[in-house]
Design a protein that fits this description.
39% helix; 7-stranded mixed beta sheet; Aspartate Aminotransferase, domain 2; alpha/beta; 15 helices; single chain; 395 residues
């Protein structure tokens, strides 16, 4: 019955997604329910989007009230929500100025343009970027150009010819690529799509120093690893390495499509000016209500502190699974963005599908890796339930 409904629903869609054979109807807290009423424990959170889980009453009420007022007016006019959301997001992220977008990919585009304009304003003939191997930054031409995974890039080449790829966590490989045309280094403090690989402190500090020495910008992509997921509001804060430009999306809207790129005052003063960048929908009253309210809930419910409390238990349970199953090769991650890499003989896709049959939603990442990015409201009991279901899926 579910497959028949899916086939009918997708008849007029362009089939560019490999969809799972399930149709969701609703969500509540940590759980999803399909159109047949079956319950699933969610450890994917819509790919790290639903930080507050499903059905948060304060957020839902705020969004409904805003819809009754106004949803869109264009960025030719000011509205109170955008100022409140910007102030709250800058306070949370440690940045000074912010530009709202519709998605993470758009945030990356804005960050790249900022770096180019900064070099131009400074009178530097700089336009090249250094990005990381195995990185993922989005699917537009610009974002793909700095994405260091050939499977995403090759079908759309030639892309921007001014990007060079260094090895993640290898500072010498970054140094070897710096030249008088380099305007910025872009990296994820924790690679999510690339297989759940956290940056080392030495690497983050080294890139920061290298950028300072060569008048280059450091761009941190925290679209997935930001908003409390690593146990800090934003991952860079653990290292004490403040980027020049920071990209955000996913959990800042808790399901409403909104992204942002933020920058220091120094960069803002010498980069984008009126007319350099724009968006029709970005920063609309509804999106900014989502951001503002989500950040309020994070404070009121001490979400980051909760992540720090429950994350060690998740890591402990994954280590327990590794001890019990020879197919688990390695566990790694930070906070509530964790991964277990499986041996090649145990394809991750098969495990993900079997888990779904057992009522557990998980997703994969590069390198035959299971990615765990549950809603940040997850409790230890949910971790136990996940481990029980996953153990059955690994058999």
């Amino acid at each position: 019955m579910v497959n028949e409904k899916l086939m009918a629903a997708e008849e007029n869609l362009l089939h560019v997604y490999n969809r799972f054979p399930v149709a969701w109807e609703r969500g509540e807290g940590m759980y999803l329910y399909d159109t047949e009423g079956k319950e699933y424990l969610d450890f994917a959170a819509g790919i790290a989007v639903m930080g507050l889980g499903y059905g948060n009453k304060k957020l839902n009420d705020a969004m409904k009230a805003q819809m009754d007022k106004i949803c869109h007016i264009s960025n030719l006019y000011y509205h109170e929500n955008v100022g409140a959301a910007a102030k709250a997001l800058n306070e949370a992220s440690g940045m000074d100025r912010v530009f709202f977008t519709n998605s993470g990919t758009e945030a990356i585009e804005g960050a790249l343009k900022t770096a180019r304009k900064y070099a131009y304003t400074k009178g530097n003939d700089r336009f090249e970027f250094i990005a990381m191997e195995d990185s993922f930054h989005g699917r537009s031409i610009g974002a793909l150009s700095v994405t260091g995974t050939s499977a995403y890039r090759e079908p759309f080449e030639p892309l921007l010819p001014t990007v060079h790829f260094a090895k993640y966590n290898d500072l010498d490989s970054v140094k070897a690529l710096v030249n008088d045309k380099t305007c910025a280094v872009i990296l994820e403090p924790l690679q999510g799509e690339g297989g759940i690989h956290p940056a080392t402190r030495e690497f983050m500090e080294g890139v920061r120093a290298l950028c300072d020495e060569n008048d280059m910008l450091m761009i941190c992509d925290e679209i997935q690893c930001g908003m409390g997921r690593t146990g800090h509001m934003f991952a860079w804060q653990e290292y004490g390495v403040r980027p020049d430009v920071l990209t955000m999306a996913k959990a800042i809207g808790d399901g409403f499509p909104v992204g942002a790129f933020a920058m220091t005052e120094k960069v803002a003063e010498s980069s984008l000016k009126a007319g350099d960048h724009g968006t029709t929908y970005g920063g609309n009253p509804l999106a900014c209500m989502a951001v503002k309210t989500v950040l309020e809930i994070f404070k009121e419910e001490h979400v980051v502190e909760h992540v720090r409390e429950v994350a060690p238990y998740l890591a402990e349970k994954l280590a327990w699974l590794k001890q019990r199953h020879d197919c688990v090769k390695e566990c790694r991650g930070k906070g509530l963005i964790q991964g277990i890499e499986l041996v090649p003989q145990k394809p991750v896709g098969d495990v993900v599908k079997k888990a779904l049959d057992l009522g557990l939603v998980i997703i994969s990442a590069k390198g035959n890796t299971i990615r765990f990015v549950p809603p940040l409201i997850v409790e230890k009991g949910h971790v136990d339930e996940m481990a029980e279901k996953l153990e059955a899926a690994l058999r």
